[in-house]
Amino acid sequence: MADLLHIIGGGMAGSEAAWQAAQAGIDVVIHEMRPGTGTFAHQTDRLAEMVCSNSFRSDDDEQNAVGLLHWEMRAAGGLIMAMADSHRLPAGGALAVDREAFALAVTERLLAHPRIALERSEITSLPAAGHWIIATGPLTSDALGQAIRAETGTQALAFFDAIAPIVHADSVDLSKAWFQSRYDKGETEAERTAYLNCPMDRAQYEAFIDALLAADKTEFHEGETAGYFDGCLPIEVMAERGRETPRHGPMKPVGLTNPHAPDVKPHAVVQLRRDNALGTLYNIVGFQTKMKYGAQVDVFRMIPGLEGARFARLGGIHRNTFLNSPTLLDCELRLKPKPHIRFAGQITGVEGYVESAAMGLLAGRLAAAELTGRALPPVPPTTATGALVAHITGGAEAKTFQPMNVNFGLFPPVDGLKAGRRGRRDRYKAYTDRAKADWHAWLGHG
């Protein structure tokens, strides 16, 4: 069928791309290699499986760029955001989801769509003809990765992404830990108590850092290098960069009061975020790790409140592959040497679930427009989606290109607004107001 769209990869980006194209009247085939060919990080065969955190980060669409991206995807009828909203968990001002229920819901909605088919097979070479979106994510199979490298004539860049451990809630000692979101953030009591907090005094913190530094770590294979993405540093790598670094990152003690000792300010705090709707699982926030499994158990049980912790999943580390997109992709996410192939998601060099899904949304809409003989105008760079795609397809410096989260630093400035911290609230509100108007106008062309 001439107007058939093939999508390789059923993660966040592939799932959203399929939904957008199908909703536009295009017949879609999703090619997903799992479960026949697995990956280090995936545990199921479901589409849109969340393998790292269960958080979509801030949901504030007036003061936060990722919250604005949530808003844009909702406005575009995005499946990923609709299912995230349906399966959200209390998380203060963040959008966290029940990962199993979320992935199951995405899978069911896609398979129920009359224009979407799913083929469980691995694609190992670049297709020579047809209409394709490659959304294989950071865990692209070796065979397809080699085919991409052979075509582009360059080595795909790689970094290492670490997974945080998950503990059983009933194994946390609540005589030491307490429920509270930082600064009591959230509109409901559930949101204001969405995190479990484990306090450390100075001596406990220093002993914990010593243990992190001394623990056995996963070794890299010969020829691999650990070019971590700074937004996903293993906790022990943070400690290696400076003993106080974790205390100014995921272990910062600000905005929290220990009800067991309200007059004692903790030196550091480890936070755990609810990971499922039942509230039986919590993940340790910011504690991605490359420690060996035995070392993880020993070190993490040094955290007050987690002395008897039982782990539903230990942390791990995997290689993430992404393109040098500024040199390889055009502004419509097409591979310059083979424009019948688009790329979407983390393989393009965006970082994060939401950013990945947003690139899938855009690729799906662009492919559908092309297949139906329509021309969409470029996405305004004043929008969160447009700022991201402008960055990865030309705004970034190709020689130093690294994965990027959406942030207001990617947006064109708004004239007449005060720079610096004092003017930030007004500036961010101006960014989001402008983006919403421009996104609505762009959607009107679809």
UniProtKB/TrEMBL annotation:
Q: Which Gene3D superfamilies match?
A: FAD/NAD(P)-binding domain
Q: Describe the reaction catalysed, as an equation.
A: uridine(54) in tRNA + (6R)-5,10-methylene-5,6,7,8-tetrahydrofolate + NADPH + H(+) = 5-methyluridine(54) in tRNA + (6S)-5,6,7,8-tetrahydrofolate + NADP(+); uridine(54) in tRNA + (6R)-5,10-methylene-5,6,7,8-tetrahydrofolate + NADH + H(+) = 5-methyluridine(54) in tRNA + (6S)-5,6,7,8-tetrahydrofolate + NAD(+)
**Please, which domain of life does this record's source organism belong to?**
Bacteria
Where does the record say this protein resides?
Answer: Cytoplasm
Q: Supply the InterPro entries for this chain.
A: FAD/NAD-bd_sf (IPR036188), MnmG-rel (IPR002218), MnmG_N (IPR040131), TrmFO (IPR004417)
Q: Per its UniProt entry, what is the enzyme's top EC class, as one word?
A: transferase
- Its job: Catalyzes the folate-dependent formation of 5-methyl-uridine at position 54 (M-5-U54) in all tRNAs.
The protein depicted here goes by the name Methylenetetrahydrofolate--tRNA-(uracil-5-)-methyltransferase TrmFO
Name the NCBIfam families on file. Answer: gid_trmFO, PRK05335.1
Residue ranges of the MnmG N-terminal domain? Answer: 6-374
Q: Which UniProt keywords apply?
A: Cytoplasm, FAD, Flavoprotein, Methyltransferase, NAD, NADP, Transferase, tRNA processing
